[in-house]
Specification:
The chain is an alpha+beta fold. It is built from 11 helices and 9 strands. The chain has a 7-stranded mixed beta sheet with strand order 1-4-5-9-8-7-6, sandwiched between helices.
């Protein structure tokens, strides 16, 4: 005959089957497991009462209790898998995508005119045999000013007030600093230089909508033997024609820059009116586009090139200025606003 422990186990098994059928979700399954199958559950707990069973009945009783436990545990695992499958199926049905709908095309971006101009000017000078040198945004006072013939007490520094990191380091006010780096790096074995350096410059300059504390320049430098201002004029004339059209002409006006001697402002004949005079050129027929000049002999000497042997010219063009003239942009801040309504006018074609 069955002893009391086996009878109790059989009763618990039947009760567990009924309760398992009522477990309709994970919460119900967790409660069922804690009640019957956990270490402190009633089915597993029966084995703790084996000490009250007569020695000769313990083998049969233990086998029966283990059989009840395995039966309920197997039923629990089957129930658990079924509920998980039902949950997964419901989730799949709720997340069904109607593939018959037309796809959503990602929005196509636009090239900022800032980069259009840099790419175009760079291509022009590369085609003329120039190399592109990458400068440093953070410069020392030595390379940004002193090697370019702008000592600490020079009045032109007032026009190039910038952002200082400490007494010696600052955000560069002009990309000309890259020219000084290039000459010094190659001065141990001087060779001809033909380079441009596109990049940003920083000045405390926000007087109106055509000025910004941040702007871009493309500076150029040529150093060789027997270089004259005629070479400078021919280079800039070719650049103007490629940039603004074959009918464009340039004129040089005397100016002053500490690092060039002589220095000139360069104007191009107005591409809006063909030189007749209009609102774009303020009735003059000419538009100022860049500054240039022959490299000051002191700059050559300080950067390691003997001015008795080497000569050269330098020039700098403002990227935003060219873009504003070409595209009729009225506010320099538009270049840095990332306004899609503005950028959508430029496709890069």
């Amino acid at each position: 005959m069955e002893n009391e422990l086996i009878k109790k186990g059989r009763e618990l098994r039947e009760k567990a089957k009924e309760d398992l059928a009522k477990a309709l979700d994970q919460l119900g399954l967790d409660s069922f497991y804690a009640t019957y199958l956990s270490k402190k559950g009633s089915l597993r707990g029966l084995l703790g009462n084996m000490k009250d069973v007569a020695p000769e009945e313990r083998g049969e009783t233990g086998s029966a209790i283990n059989s009840f436990f395995r039966e309920i545990n197997d039923a629990y695992e089957t129930r658990k898998k079924r509920l998980e499958e039902e949950k997964r199926q419901k989730k799949l049905e709720s997340e069904t995508i109607d593939i018959s709908l037309p796809g959503r095309k990602p929005q196509t971006g636009f090239i900022n005119p800032y980069h259009l101009i840099i790419d175009e000017v760079t291509d022009i000078f590369i085609s003329m045999g120039y190399e592109v040198v990458e400068g440093r945004d953070v410069e020392t006072d030595l390379y940004n000013f002193e090697l370019l013939n702008v000592p600490k007490d020079h009045p032109s520094r007032d026009m190039q007030d910038t952002f200082y990191l400490n007494a010696d380091k600052l955000l560069r006010t002009q990309t000309s600093a890259a020219q000084a780096h290039t000459m010094r790096e190659r001065s141990s074995d001087p060779k001809p230089i033909r380079m441009i350096c596109p990049g940003k410059a920083y000045r405390r300059d926000d007087d109106d909508q055509t000025h910004s504390h941040q702007f871009a320049q493309i500076e150029g430098l040529v150093v060789d033997k027997d270089i004259s201002i005629a070479n400078l004029k021919a280079t800039l004339e070719l650049f103007a024609k490629k940039m603004f059209g074959e009918k464009r002409e340039i004129r040089l006006r005397s100016s002053y820059f500490p690092f060039t001697e002589p220095s000139v402002e360069v104007d191009v004949s107005c591409f809006a009116c063909g030189g007749k005079g209009c609102s774009t050129c303020k009735g003059t027929g000419w538009i100022e586009i860049l500054g240039a000049g022959m490299v000051n002999p002191k700059v050559l000497r300080d950067c390691g090139y003997d001015p008795e042997v080497w000569t050269g010219f330098a020039f700098g063009v403002g990227v935003e200025r060219v873009a504003m003239l070409r595209y009729g942009i009225d506010d320099i801040r538009r270049f840095y606003s990332d306004d899609l309504r503005f950028l959508s006018d430029f496709t890069g074609k």
